[in-house]
Amino acid sequence: MSQHLYSLTTVFVLGLVFGIGPCTITCLPFLGPVFLAKQGGLGQSWKIILPFSLGRLSSYATLGALSGIAGASIQKMIATPAVAWFLGGATIMVGLIILWRTYRRKTGCGSHGRRPKLQDHPLLPSGLFFMGVGMAATPCAPLTTVMITAAATVDGVSGLLLGLSFGAGAVVMPALAFGVGMAYFGQRIRQIMYQWRISLERASALMLVFIGGTTILG
């Protein structure tokens, strides 16, 4: 029991260290444009952070469980172009949602031609969730360590707990950095560039489409 708790604590710290540096930097090209295009600032940032983080947690937990069940690291199974296609496709999806929003106008009584808020789009949470899933499934040294540890347990439940523990540590710092820092700066930039806000949103959308495309192409 104590050994299992030690392993969970160790992978949590590993995830925390990974999240402080490399993970936050890696997330920036994907989440940065979304926050630039989003209205609401700090008060609405959780609508972006929550589905994205849940996607990452789900992916880490699944990979840990599969490694535990297989009794071997599934690193080779996920080191395929399919992961890049998945992440790239989800990123393009989010970019197209933002781009579509900039052209859409509400119709009907009382709408006064106002554009719907980005965070109210029903497909946005799904797109962000799948972005998180794809990003977490991208092979890296810390994730490989977790899968090897999970494989050593030869148990799906233990592997799942290891994946969740690592994921919990890995999502903390990016959630704070983007949920507070990027949300604030994104809001400030939108205020400063208010008269060009539509152009800013479209540029952010096209940036996401470009990033998604280059991710697919490797």
Q: Mind explaining what this structure looks like?
A:
With 218 residues, the chain is mostly helical. The protein has a domain at 79-106 and 117-218. Helix content is 79%, strand content 0%. The chain has eight helices and no strands. The chain has helices at 2-37, 46-70, 75-78, 81-103, 124-137, 141-153, 156-192, 197-217. The longest helix is centred in the C-terminal third of the chain and has 37 residues, at 156-192. The radius of gyration is 19 Å and the shape is elongated. The N and C termini lie far apart (42 Å). The model is unreliable at 105-113 (pLDDT under 50).
Which percent range fits the helix content? Answer: over 70%
User: Mean pLDDT, rounded to whole units?
Assistant: 84
Principal-axis shape = elongated
Q: What is the CA-based Rg, rounded?
A: 19 Å
Poorly predicted ranges (pLDDT <50, ≥5 residues)? Answer: 105-113
Biggest sheet, open or closed, and with what strands and sense? none
Written as H for each helix and E for each strand, in order along the chain, the element string is HHHHHHHH
**Annotation field: number of helices:** 8
First CA to last CA: what distance? 42 Å
* SS elements, strand count: 0
- Which structural class do the helices and strands define? mainly alpha
Strand content: under 5%
Task: Spell out the blueprint of helices and strands.
Layout lengths: L1 H36 L8 H25 L4 H4 L2 H23 L20 H14 L3 H13 L2 H37 L4 H21 L1
Helix pairs in contact: 1-7, 1-8, 2-5, 2-6, 2-7, 4-5, 4-8, 6-7
